Amino acid sequence: MIGRLNHIAIAVPDIAAASRLYQGTLGAEVSAPEKLPEHGVTVVFITLPNTKIELLEPLGEASPIARFLDKNPDGGIHHVCYEVEDIGAARDWLVTSGARVLGSGEPKIGAHGKPVLFLHPKDFNGALIELEQA
Ligand SMILES: CC[C@H](C(=O)O)C(=O)SCCNC(=O)CCNC(=O)[C@H](O)C(C)(C)COP(=O)(O)OP(=O)(O)OC[C@H]1O[C@@H](n2cnc3c(N)ncnc32)[C@H](O)[C@@H]1OP(=O)(O)O
Ligand SMILES: [Co+2]
In this structure, what CATH number is given to the domain that contains residue 49? Predict the structure, then answer.
């Protein structure tokens, strides 16, 4: 069911500083920050030859990554995103398999303009998984 690795996300306390680090020190191609209020984050994408790194900074009072950063003030790897051919079918299979789909269970449009879902980290070896419609 899961296909390509779409991105690995890193939550950071200061997305401008992290962007400068990736652009300057690591010589990477870094996008401009994009605010996603519906997801409670500001994102930046770093394009690599074989996948992307997503930098995330909390946006607003109810950011879903706020507590993660409280626990990890320097930041840390936040989630992995796999692509799936059919996110609806994937969701149905996962629910049948007993996995917890976060939020309402309905896909929301993510940073790439595609439907995404999140699976509870406690169900997948402590790793927060995002699924994105390929
Ligand atoms: C969609 C736009 C963009 C894109 O790529 O397109 C994005 O990726 S936006 C990314 C930000 N949005 C989300 O992460 C939505 C899904 N996440 C959530 O709903 C929450 O972050 C949740 C429920 C996973 C955790 O929320 P919170 O930390 O407030 O809850 P708890 O403190 O109760 O945590 C429960 C339990 O899970 C552990 N945890 C939390 N976050 C992570 C994580 N990123 N990786 C692994 N484990 C995580 C936390 O430590 C708790 O464990 P416990 O042993 O009970 O202490
Ligand atoms: Co993501």
Answer: 3.10.180.10
